[in-house]
Write a structure and sequence with these properties.
The protein has a single domain, classed as Alpha-ketoglutarate-dependent dioxygenase AlkB-like (Jelly Rolls), CATH 2.60.120. The chain contains 2 helices and 14 strands, in the order ββαββββαββββββββ. The strands form 3 sheets. Strands 1-2-12-9-14-7-4-3 form an 8-stranded antiparallel β-sheet, with helices on one face. The protein has a 4-stranded antiparallel β-sheet with strand order 8-13-10-11, with no helix packed on it. A two-stranded antiparallel sheet has the order 5-6. The protein starts with 10 loop residues before the first strand and ends with a strand. The N terminus is likely disordered.
């Protein structure tokens, strides 16, 4: 059984140039963030996308805001999203970005991933946004997971970092196009999210 935090103080953990982990940053907002993702999922249910290679992804996805990411035989694209990015989500993402040194970040989209046991995210770059001058803000809720953070080439050495409930990772600048992913999720039960890990990723897409 995992020992989930209660009242540990947040702190910053450098990850790379332009990248930082804000440990426990969301600890006082986790309930509200979880309610928001449930609201989004009720309007836009989670789906398992198909990769350009024809494989069904183990991670289920939904999201809100101006654009969402879809995949298929034609590749990875963005499309309009009918679910609004709420003021609560916008404010939280801006607060996290400011704490990480990106005070001018104004996201327009939030991608929500749901991880079940054994689901994973292979190494990839976030590069479909119109401008790469804006950072990525990634929030972890629920079961802990091993976050993989590499370099600008897929073959670069990859750091393995445990992310727990309430942790936030922000990367931009020199690290904006670093490859990253999630190792297969280990089984567990979280008091808030049950058998799942959720990841909310905020971007300026358009």
């Amino acid at each position: 059984m995992f020992d989930f935090f209660q009242d540990e103080a947040p702190w910053q953990e450098p990850l790379a140039a332009g990248a930082v982990i804000l440990r426990r940053f969301a600890q006082y907002d986790v309930d509200a963030l979880y309610r928001e993702l449930i609201r989004v999922a009720e309007q836009a249910p989670f789906v398992h996308r198909v990769t350009p290679g024809g494989f069904t992804m183990s991670v289920a996805m939904t999201g809100c805001g101006a654009a969402q990411w879809v995949s298929g035989r034609e590749g990875y694209l963005s499309q309009s999203q009918h679910v609004a990015l709420s003021p609560l989500l916008l404010h939280f993402a801006q607060s996290a970005a400011t704490a990480a040194g990106y005070p001018h970040f104004i996201p327009d989209s939030c991608l929500i991933n749901r991880y079940a046991p054994d689901s994973k995210m292979t190494l990839h770059q976030d590069k479909n946004e119109r401008s790469l001058s804006h950072p990525i803000v990634s929030v972890s809720l629920g079961l802990p997971a091993v976050f993989l953070f590499g370099g600008l080439s897929r073959s670069d050495k990859t750091a393995k970092v445990l992310l727990e409930h309430g942790d936030v990772v922000v990367w931009g600048g020199a690290s904006r196009l670093c490859f990253h992913g999630i190792s297969p999720l280990k089984p567990g039960i979280h008091p808030l999210t049950g058998p799942y890990r959720f990841n909310l990723t905020f971007r300026k897409a358009l």
